[in-house]
Amino acid sequence: xxxxxxxxxxxxxxxxxxxxxDIRFGNVLRTVDPRLAEIKVPEPTVKVGEAEVxxxxxxxxxxxxxxxxxxxxxxxxxxxxxxxxxxxxxxxxHPSDPTLQTKEIPLEVFFHKVVGxxxxxxxxxxxxxxxxxxxxxxxxxxxxxxxxxxxxxxxVQCAF
Length: 160
Description:
- The protein is of the alpha+beta class.
- Helices cover 44% and strands 25% of the residues.
- The protein contains 4 helices and 8 strands.
- It has helices at 55-70, 75-81, 107-130, 136-159; strands at 2-5, 9-17, 20-25, 28-32, 45-48, 51-54, 90-93, 103-106.
- The strands form 3 sheets. Strands 1-2-3-4 form a 4-stranded antiparallel β-sheet, with no helix packed on it.
- A hairpin with a 3-residue loop joins β1 and β2.
- α2 (75-81) packs across α3 (107-130) and α3 runs antiparallel to α4 (136-159).
- The longest helix has 24 residues, at 107-130.
- The protein starts with a strand and ends with a helix.
């Protein structure tokens, strides 16, 4: 484990005992009391090719890339893209039985649900692709069942 000592700089912990630790600072091996030495653990890094990148930055980059590739979006992002004529609009559903009450749904809620369904279908597709017990033929067959739903959800979102 790498550490930073206030006087000796960066070091690598070699051996830890009761009340002492052997730490190598460059070519010098020193025994220090970790409780008294004000030792700090530096920010973890990962080596990518020739460069060392902070681990937090590396993980955030991978997560952002995965989220973009999967097509997940923030709920408010879709609402902002709606045409202004549709802002604060409603969908009115009239049942065929006139004795039943009509239902009004805000467009923002409707589109949010459509995008949610589309994202869940994409996750389902990834799970099908990664499933270890399904044959390639079964994977293709299962994907064909939900592809029209994804296209419909994409069309509904793009229409507005």
